[in-house]
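Entry 14. Ran structure prediction on the chain below.
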Amino acid sequence: MRAVCQRVSEARVRVDGRIVGAIGPGLCVLLGVAREDREDGAVRLAGKVVRLRVFADEAGRFDRSLLDVGGDALVVSQFTLLADTAKGNRPSFAGAAPPEEAEPLYERFCAELRALGVTVAQGVFGAKMAVELVNDGPVTIVLES
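Output, C-alpha cells:
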C-alpha cells in the first residue's frame, strides 16, 4: 500500500463537477492498494499517516502530526501509484489490486483514520475525479505499509 501525503491548507475532490469531499488544513492522501496488501497494512499505514510529523511547531520545525494540529484528511484512491515503468514508456498496473480487493482496504484505511480521531473526507472509489489542493510548503511525503 502506498500513500502520497501532501500537507495542504485546503483540498477538495470533484466527481462530475460536484464536490464530494473537501477539507481545510490537513493532509491530502492519495492511496494506492497493491495486490499483496492486507488489512493489517491498512491499519499500520493509517497509524503512520496520523503520526507523520510534517506540521511546524513554534520554532518552525516539523514536529507536529495531523493529530497534534487537529487537521483533517482527504483520502483519494489512486491505483496509478502502483505503476511499473521499468519496461518501456507505457506503465503497467499489474501490481495494483483489482477493485473488489482494493476498495475494502481503502475503506478500512479511512475507517482507521477516523478511529484514530481524524475527520476524513473521501473521493469516490473508482470514479474519474478532479482533485484540487493547495500544497502547503510544498510538503509531499510518500509512505508505504
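The chain has a mean pLDDT of 97. Will compare against last week's run tomorrow.
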